[in-house]
Design a protein that fits this description.
It is a single chain. The chain is of the alpha+beta class. The two termini are 46 Å apart. The strands form 4 sheets. A 7-stranded mixed sheet has the order 10-22-21-20-11-18-19, sandwiched between helices. The chain has a 6-stranded antiparallel sheet with strand order 2-1-3-9-4-7, with no helix packed on it. Strands 12-17-16-15-14-13 form a 6-stranded antiparallel sheet. The longest helix is centred in the last third of the chain and has 34 residues. The chain has 25 helices and 22 strands. Helix 12 runs antiparallel to helix 24. The radius of gyration is 32 Å and the shape is elongated.
């Protein structure tokens, strides 16, 4: 019983069950399998028709709102007046199928803001008279001194007054490499302390912290997006007037009330109502096979109009993790690589892990070091096979009196400007080489940008990097326009600025810091695997497997879908007017008119279903089987 109860709690499950029962009752009614005083079609009329009649009546009376429900309600009432039970039930069933398809493609409840707020710590360690006291963050005040231990999140925004550490700021900036922090540096709520303990002075209370401000940004722009109004609803007022006029003309010409009411039945826009949701559901099914999850059917209409795609850098066009891109040794590089990897094998820093992975992939021998020591903001040192090995920045080399050759120093500076991180290597206090690490471009990024360009969509890179590093990364991906030194607020502002200038912007990102821009954009697309839950919830679509190469297919398919919708609408209107003409000439009766509805509806469904097999080649060329975009 519990399984049945859980099944029925879901609105879509209940709708499917009611539709199945109604469909069975109509089949029994049509073939007259169960003769009796009450026609089985009444089951469909009650289950499917009653909600339609109620919605139409309340909308018309209370809100003076004429929608497609009014047209369908008129057809149901007309059929009931003529005692054509099957026709009334069939019209109601078709309408409910359309409503179910729309529910399937509707947006899921957005829990992004709640998750975003939950990232902020609930307590903090306040230092009072040399003692720690754990208090709720709401009680923390500006000027107090807090202590943050390794592995803990920073409770509120503040400034370090004692200690050194490395902070994982990916929640705010999206950057995959932790940032070294010392006395005087600012730290932000929600970021994670990775290394040493430190004391900080509170600069902002919890309500004004960076994480809370980002949550406010995400929620404040939610109202900027309006849902697509179903085409049938847009035209409902005019259609009601047309059907009333045609029915009146039919009656005045023929004085046959039966024929006039039949006109009202056959004019019910069943195929018209199915035109949009069937195409949307088919397009969503196609994209699901390509690894694109669509949370909101309306976003497919919006992305078909996109002319600009704003791309986050880290984790979106890059892999989102540091990799060794160059290893240089003054002498024997093979033995030096083993020494360096052994010294880094105890490090928890992402750069150290990347060096160890690189060494193992290149066959270097990695042994357990002795006397391992990590110096925050400098690097690591250890004893390996009796040799003292140091890997760190220029400051570490200077403090150890290791002379770095000028050409290495110059190249390290140039590499920094391209977004790379360099570490110098010393063995027994003698300079031995340099290792360069960088977040690498995804292999599909350049082709993706090229295909979008062929579709007339411009790409813009938004990154927190400095201008030179941003320009280098943009060039690597084939992107002409970029905006550097972006914060979550500036990303959102830049998206807003582009849209105010007339562009339809799709934002693609993976981090919490991208959430405000994802919500602000005309369409938001999140990286489904590497992306944070907050980014995925804030977006309209998610790329499973981080398939950025699926973006061109998504844009092309959405345009194809809108072509199908327009064709379906045009066909359904022509079909309806043809049915009305035949009804006015008494060629069609109510039951025959209901069957005509089925033919038109089936045609629309089949035409939309072709989107399931739609494919696209690079450079905008379509598959041969899809050479006719808007018809079957």
């Amino acid at each position: 019983m519990s399984k049945i109860s859980d099944f029925l709690k879901d609105d879509i499950n209940r709708s499917v069950l009611l539709l199945v029962i109604s469909a069975v009752s109509l089949v029994v009614s049509y073939f007259e399998w169960v003769p009796g005083p009450v026609d089985p079609a009444w089951i469909a009329i009650i289950l499917c028709g009653a909600p339609i009649l109620w919605d139409a009546a309340t909308g018309l009376i209370l809100r003076h709102d004429i929608k497609a429900d009014v047209l369908v309600a008129m057809a149901i009432i007309a059929a009931i007046c003529l005692q054509e039970w099957f026709a009334a039930g069939e019209v109601a069933l078709i309408m409910e199928i359309g409503g179910l398809l729309e529910d399937v493609s509707a947006a899921k409840a957005n829990k992004g803001v709640e998750k975003l707020i939950s990232l902020s710590p609930k307590t903090g360690r306040v230092l009072e008279n040399g003692e720690e006291k754990v208090v709720p963050v709401e009680e923390i005040r500006i000027g107090q001194i807090l202590r943050v231990l390794p592995g803990e999140s920073v409770p509120v925004d503040g400034r370090i007054v004692s200690g050194e550490t490395s902070i994982d700021q990916s929640v705010m900036t999206g950057e995959s490499i932790p940032v070294d922090k010392a006395v005087g540096d600012e730290v932000f709520s929600g970021t994670i302390n990775q290394m040493g303990a430190f004391d900080m002075e509170v600069l902002k209370e919890s309500g004004d912290s960076s994480m809370q401000r980002m949550a406010q940004l995400v929620s404040s722009v939610d109202a900027d997006k309006t849902r697509m109004v179903r085409t049938a609803d847009r035209w409902a007022t005019y259609l009601v007037a047309i059907v009333m006029v045609l029915a009146l003309v039919t009656y005045l010409v023929t004085w046959d009330i039966y024929r006039a009411v039949t006109v009202m039945i056959v004019f019910c826009p069943c195929a018209f109502i199915l035109a949009t949701p069937t195409a949307v559901v088919a397009a969503i099914g196609n994209l699901t096979k390509k690894g694109v999850l669509v949370k909101d059917g309306d976003s497919l209409e919006r992305i078909s109009n996109v002319d600009t795609i704003a791309l986050d850098k880290t984790g979106t066009i890059t892999e989102g993790r540091p990799e060794v891109t160059a290893f240089e040794a003054v002498s024997d590089s093979g033995s030096l690589l083993g020494l360096v990897a052994s010294a880094e094998s105890r490090s928890e820093h992402p750069l150290g892990k990347a060096i160890v992975s690189y060494a193992k992939a290149n066959g270097a021998s990695v042994v357990d070091p002795a006397d391992f020591k990590m110096t925050i903001g400098r690097g690591v040192s250890a004893t390996v096979d009796g040799k003292t090995v140091m890997i760190g920045n220029a400051r570490m080399m200077e403090e150890a009196s290791v002379s770095v050759p000028q050409d290495y120093s110059d190249r390290a500076g140039a590499l920094f400007d391209t977004g790379c991180t360099t570490s110098f290597i010393a063995v027994d206090n003698e300079f031995a080489g340099m290792v360069t690490l960088s977040d690498t471009i995804r292999g599909t990024a350049r082709d993706m940008v090229s295909e979008l360009d062929s579709l007339g969509v411009k790409c813009v890179l938004l990154t927190g990097d400095n201008p030179r590093a941003a320009g280098h990364m943009a060039s690597e991906a084939g992107i002409k326009d970029y905006i550097a030194e972006c914060t979550p607020e500036t990303k959102m502002d830049e998206v807003g600025r582009m849209q105010e200038s007339g562009s339809k912007v799709c934002m693609v990102g993976d981090g919490v810091n991208d959430a405000p821009a994802l919500r602000k954009a005309w369409v938001g697309v999140a990286m489904g695997d590497s992306g944070s839950d907050i980014a995925v919830d804030a977006a309209d679509m998610a790329l499973i497997g981080d398939r950025v190469d699926a973006l061109p297919h998504t844009v092309a398919l959405s345009r194809k879908m809108m072509g199908k919708v327009r064709f379906n609408i045009a066909f359904s209107m022509c079909w309806n007017f043809l049915a009305v003409a035949l009804a006015m000439l008494a060629v069609l009766g109510p039951v025959e008119g209901a069957l005509v509805h089925n033919v038109g509806s089936v045609f629309v469904v089949v035409n939309s279903a072709l989107l399931l097999v739609y494919g696209r080649k690079a450079a905008g060329r379509q598959e041969p089987t899809q050479s006719r975009p808007d018809t079957v």
